[in-house]
Predict the 3D structure of the following.
Amino acid sequence: MPAPAGTKRVKGTKLPRIKGVSIYRPFIFGSIAEHIDPNNRSSTINADHTHQWTIYVRPCPPQPELSYFIKKISFKLHETYTNSLRTIEAPPFEVTETGWGEFEVQIKIYFVPEANEKPQTIWHHLKLHPYGPDAERQRERKEPIVSECYEEVVFNEPVEAFYDLLTSTGGVSAGRGKGSKGSKQASMGGKKGAQGDRVAELPFDGTYSQKEEGRELDRLGQAIKTVEIMVKEERKKLEEREKILADLRSDGGTAVKTR
């Protein structure tokens, strides 16, 4: 998983900020692509296009929509698309298109005015085809190609109005409070036991992150097995070469260099 991305403040503003407090918000960004069925192909689709895809920014389940802290999101597509810069100002934050090739998509996230933070830019590789050891079977099953990432945006020392907005949204509060013991900042960022009190911690059961972590561990395990097989093959080749060289030396011969 990528490291949490911190935001940058808008210069020239001196709004009061809550010192020593960082609040984070998780989200998912990615894409899903499906092969266009020639039997159900719309006449409006370009003849060269082979896939329909959607690129998106979504909340982590079971979190609500992101519009309470995100104002709009722009998706910069490949320059061959008409109106390649698509700006979405309300959820769902996604763009659906058709095409034939993979490319990098620039995703720019703009926060609500209360945040007083600069936009954040992330990149996503639009994936249309399956890769890896199960690629052939995925093609045969004609499964949708899903490629998505978990990300966190961190608001360091948010302005008071934005802090109030983030922590007053029921069921979505998330953050990491810091500050000296007994300080106002520490009490605002710390967890409170009473039900209904605002907190700056994530009431998130971790379902998505655990699922993704499991997938990542499976991929790593498969990669380790592949590397181990390659190492064994190379060792076997090396042993065979050393044996040939030892035989030549014992016979007083000379190894012949091959081009």
